[in-house]
Amino acid sequence: MHSRFIFILALFFLLTGCYSSATSGHQSFSSVVFQVTGNVYPTGYYYVTVNIGNPPKPYWLDLDTGSDLTWLQCDAPCTKCFPAPHKPYKPNKNLVTCMDPLCASVHWPETLNCESPNDQCDYEVQYADHGSSLGLLVNDRFRLKYTNGTLVEPRLAFGCGYDQEVEASMNPPYTDGVLGLGLGKASILRQLNELGVTKKCGGSLS
To answer: CB within 8 A of 113, min separation 6: which ones?
Structure first.
């Protein structure tokens, strides 16, 4: 339990201390904050509430620092979805195409096959615990708030998952999806940085 507490402190620092809002000409030193909810027992997992869409709707996302892709359970229809606190996300003609560079970032080079530039971008993500999510990439507005109260609504790409799998012996967390906090090109943190919405303290993202 002690190590999990240290992890949460480190995560809080990552989300509040390392990504500050970027403005033209100067840095405002106002950080984007995600409130972490949950506990070790009895919940057994932590999540953040993220408002997505227009108008924005709240979704609970399970925290994962070991993966890049953020995804929500999707009304696509959903072949295999788990019980969740909110209705599945419904895409609205906001698909990421196969030729988008972000699509290449969620594929091994040999698996990306674009028959047409307008083809949808499918994804499949596998996790160390043998769980997985299959779906398509979309983009939509994320309503984020800086600590100074300023709101920003960038369009970010994420997964719309319609087929989720977990080990038979595991109970999936009661969330709407996963918030990938890795630093790959598809991660929310990387996208915010490249859009100029946030700025990594002390250096650039590699």
So the answer is: none
**H-assigned helices in the chain:** 2-17, 101-105, 188-195
Q: How far apart are CA 189 and CA 94, in angstroms?
A: 20
β-bridge mates for residue 158, sequence order: 138
Distance CA(194)–CA(203), nearest Å, equals 13
How many domains in the chain? 1
Establish if 116 belongs to a structural domain. Answer: yes
Task: Give yes or no for residue 52 having a pLDDT over 80.
Answer: yes
**pTM of this prediction?**
0.81
Among the listed residues 188, 113, 130, the one whose alpha carbon sits nearest the alpha carbon of residue 164:
130
Q: Cβ(57)–Cβ(173) under 8 Å?
A: no
The CA-based angle 58-61-65, given to 5 degrees, is 145
Q: Which pLDDT score, from 0 to 100, does residue 17 have? A: 39
Task: Flag whether 206 is in a domain.
Answer: no
